[in-house]
């Protein structure tokens, strides 16, 4: 699982994100990853890209929910908010903990606000 990065998000802007659980088939090792991009019009577009990539590496994927990320690299701030109509709201507190590993010097906050 070390080959898979915890976080892959756009370097700037506001965009959709999903929280994905990776697991080896039959149980065992699992971990959650964050993926987000402006290129996705809908949350399922992100999952449709991530799922085949992870399957090639031998993982099963489950989308735990989604939302939006506002990434301001200049001010070193990330805000996690909103929800996914299709997947429901991700646990933003879990997302923030994962983001903190990658962006340790950032101010990272979350809320249930829609905008």
UniProtKB/TrEMBL annotation:
Active-site positions on this chain: 43
Catalytic activity: N(tele)-phospho-L-histidyl-[protein] + H2O = L-histidyl-[protein] + phosphate; N(pros)-phospho-L-histidyl-[protein] + H2O = L-histidyl-[protein] + phosphate
GO cellular component: cytosol
An annotated Gene Ontology molecular function: protein histidine phosphatase activity
Enzyme Commission code(s) on record: 3.9.1.3
Role according to the record: Exhibits phosphohistidine phosphatase activity.
PANTHER family in alphabetical order: 14 KDA PHOSPHOHISTIDINE PHOSPHATASE, JANUS-A/JANUS-B
Family, per entry: Belongs to the janus family.
Record-given protein name: 14 kDa phosphohistidine phosphatase
Native organism: Taeniopygia guttata
């Amino acid at each position: 699982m070390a080959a898979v990065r915890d976080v892959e998000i756009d370097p700037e802007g506001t965009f959709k994100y999903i929280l994905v659980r990776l697991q080896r088939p039959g149980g065992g090792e699992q971990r959650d990853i964050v993926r987000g991009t402006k290129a996705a019009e809908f949350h399922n577009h992100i999952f449709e890209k991530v799922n085949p990539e992870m399957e090639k590496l031998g993982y099963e994927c489950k989308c735990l929910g989604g939302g939006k990320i506002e990434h301001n690299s200049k001010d070193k701030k990330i805000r996690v908010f909103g929800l996914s109509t299709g997947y429901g709201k991700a646990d933003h507190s879990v997302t923030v903990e994962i983001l903190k590993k990658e962006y340790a010097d950032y101010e990272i906050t979350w809320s249930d606000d829609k905008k």
